[in-house]
UniProtKB/TrEMBL annotation:
The keyword Transferase does not apply. GO terms for cellular component: cytoplasm. Its main location: cytoplasm. PANTHER family: NACHT, LRR AND PYD DOMAINS-CONTAINING PROTEIN 12, NACHT, LRR AND PYD DOMAINS-CONTAINING PROTEIN 3. Keywords: Cytoplasm, Repeat. SUPFAM superfamilies: P-loop containing nucleoside triphosphate hydrolases. The gene is NLRP1. It is found in: Cytoplasm. This is NACHT, LRR and PYD domains-containing protein. The keyword RNA-binding does not apply.
């Protein structure tokens, strides 16, 4: 994981289909909602807070590619290494969640009603990258500072690209494509320079 994903208790509503409201992804959607509780460490997901005293059945909501599966994989790895809930009296007895222990479920926002019949102790949502975290992702994606500046320049000056990049997997796709385009452009410039040089030598 390149950067920490911020998880908030409570849902943030947003009409993603309306392209004219893309700016609201950062202006409204990614800002903490009233009554939400920021969770900065994975352990906090399973510990008591203002919303519940004993979170055993947890629903993680998030848009496609936002990192729900990756989050669960990370928790499984941390648990296997003894790094998850190390300082707590809570623990997972098995990696699969039996009814009397803990249940961790993920779903997309548009199908949340499909699990409406289940009672969860806590509902959280992975909100995605803010513009600052998109920029941090770009910096860690590329080793070359010049390429970083060019990629971030393209993303930050294009609201369509920036609004796509709040989903981590989209950040990877956009950065990969832009990096390839930059390399291709540089290669074409080098070929053109060589051709001009060869032509100039012939003329001499």
């Amino acid at each position: 994981m390149y950067v920490d994903l911020v998880i908030y208790t409570g849902r943030a509503e947003h009409a993603f289909g309306d392209l004219s409201k893309r700016h609201e992804i950062f202006d409204i959607y990614l800002k903490p909602q009233h009554g939400s509780i920021a969770i900065e460490k994975l352990d906090e997901l399973f510990l008591p807070n203002e919303d519940t005293e004993d979170p055993r059945k947890i629903l993680i909501v998030g848009r496609p590619g936002i990192g729900k599966s990756l989050l669960c994989e990370k928790m499984a790895r941390d648990w296997s290494k003894g790094d998850l809930l190390r300082d707590s009296n809570k623990s997972f007895q098995h990696l699969f969640f039996v009814p009397i222990q803990m249940l961790l479920t993920t779903c997309r926002p548009n199908v949340e009603q499909s699990v409406a019949g289940l009672k969860f102790d806590r509902k959280v949502e992975i909100m995605g990258f803010t513009p600052e975290k998109v920029q941090e992702y770009v910096k860690k994606f590329c080793a070359d500072p010049k390429t970083v500046n060019r990629i971030w320049g393209h993303i930050s000056n294009n609201l369509e690209l920036l609004s796509l990049c709040y989903i981590p997997v989209n950040s990877f796709i956009v950065c990969s494509l832009l990096e390839e385009l930059i390399k291709l452009h540089e290669k074409e410039r080098q070929v053109l320079y060589q051709q001009l040089q060869q032509k100039s030598m012939k003329e001499l």
